[in-house]
Amino acid sequence: MKIINPLYDYAFKYLMQNNRIAKKVLSTLLECEVEELTVEQQEIVAVDDTKGLKLYRLDFSATIINESGEKQKVLIELQKSKLPTNELRFRTYLGENYLKKETKKKEDGTEEFFIYPIISIYILGYKVTDIPYLAISIDNRITNTVTKEEVAIESDFIELLTHKTRIIQIRRLSEERRTQLEKFLTLFNQAWTSDPRYIIDLKEVPEGFEDVAKYLQGPVQDEEFRNRLKGEEELDLIFAKQDADLAKARQEAEKAKQEAEKAKQKAEEAEQEAEEAKQEVKEAKQNVASLQVQFAKHLLSTGVAVDQVAQQTGLEITAVEALKNDDLV
Q1: From the CB of residue 36, how many other CB atoms can be counted at a distance below 10 Å?
Q2: d(Cα 53, Cα 167) in Å, to the nearest integer?
Q3: End-to-end CA separation in angstroms for the chain
Q4: Positive or negative CA dihedral for 141, 146, 151, 154?
Q5: How distant is the alpha carbon of residue 11 from its chain centre?
Q6: What's the rounded Cα separation, in Å, for the pair 183 and 313?
Q7: In degrees to the nearest 10, what's the CA dihedral of 48, 49, 55, 59?
């Protein structure tokens, strides 16, 4: 069975524009029931204007059934990137959601403001080297700082100022299908991409997600849709080449920097050695001068004439005379 590759932005946008399927996808990613779902904004945001890289982002307003079995209104921020990108970009867009609020009019005509907890989902088409897992969840865990004990607190202050996070790394998908999440991510299995890579040839249709697979199968024969995916793939190849060229340039620059530092270090060492040699020569001259004076004094004490002392020691006659006068004093 061939489906469009949902790792591609245009294919993923198509997947998530179906409200029923979007609720199923988010319920699987969050491991809770998403009862109601509204797309707040749908856009592709530029990550790097100089390179043209894109970071796909979706914001949802949702009602979920939380761990306590209660209905809860939340904001879901989903960000997806096929290529490695700056984590600061993810954080920047998250910060925008913290500014969001909902306004409702009360019966007396005044306005009431609501803010909701945020759940972040990151779908990555690459491996983060220091996170060796397919999927991880970061949930609020409250600890008494004094006793170091975990405590149970229900607080809007905490709920609204911290957020839960899910990180999914598509390329860490294993052959095992133990959970609903792993079954769902079978639809993203990049090991089954064909030529072209924007088509996935499913070796198996994941149980429970037959409807999603069928939905993704629909555009495979749509020429216009395939052309959009082809254009996205061509851009990816350009970005990949730019990244490779940039990485090579950085390596060469780093190598040149290291060589320059080595040359500088050698120059500094040579300068230090020259300074030390200069000091040694200075000390040697001082030693020779001291020996000349001592020898001259010895010769003068034995009655040798000044001119002869000067001749034998190499000192100036005036210097020898000065030594003789000092001895006389």
Answers
A1: 13
A2: 20
A3: 117
A4: negative
A5: 26
A6: 100
A7: 120
Mean pLDDT computed over 197-222: 94
Q: Is pLDDT above 60 for 93?
A: no
- Nearby residues of 21 by Cβ (< 8 Å), 6 or more positions away: 15, 211, 212, 215
What's the distance, CA 306 to chain centroid? 83
Reported as a single tens digit per residue, the pLDDT across 39-64 is 876 655 555 545 445 567 888 999 99
* Distance in angstroms (rounded) separating the CA atoms of residues 63 and 53: 33
Region for 109 from its dihedrals, namely left if φ exceeds 0, alpha if ψ lies in -120 to 50, beta otherwise: left
- Counting beta carbons within 10 angstroms of the beta carbon of residue 229, is it exposed (0 to 12), middle (13 to 18) or buried (19 or more)? buried
E strands, the chain, in order:
2-4, 33-48, 53-65, 71-81, 102-105, 111-114, 118-124, 135-138, 163-169, 199-201
Mean pLDDT, to the nearest integer, of 289-301?
Answer: 85
**Dist. CA 184–CA 125, nearest whole Å:** 15
Nearest to 8 by CA among 54, 74, 45: 54
Mean pLDDT of 118-146: 89
d(CA 32, CA 68): 11
Instruction: Considering only residues 52 and 191, tell me which one the structure prediction assigns the higher pLDDT.
Output: 191
Whether residue 191 has pLDDT greater than 80: yes
Provide the CB-side half-sphere exposure for 185 (13 A, CA): 24
- Is-above-0.70 flag for pTM? no
The mean predicted confidence, pLDDT, of the chain is 84
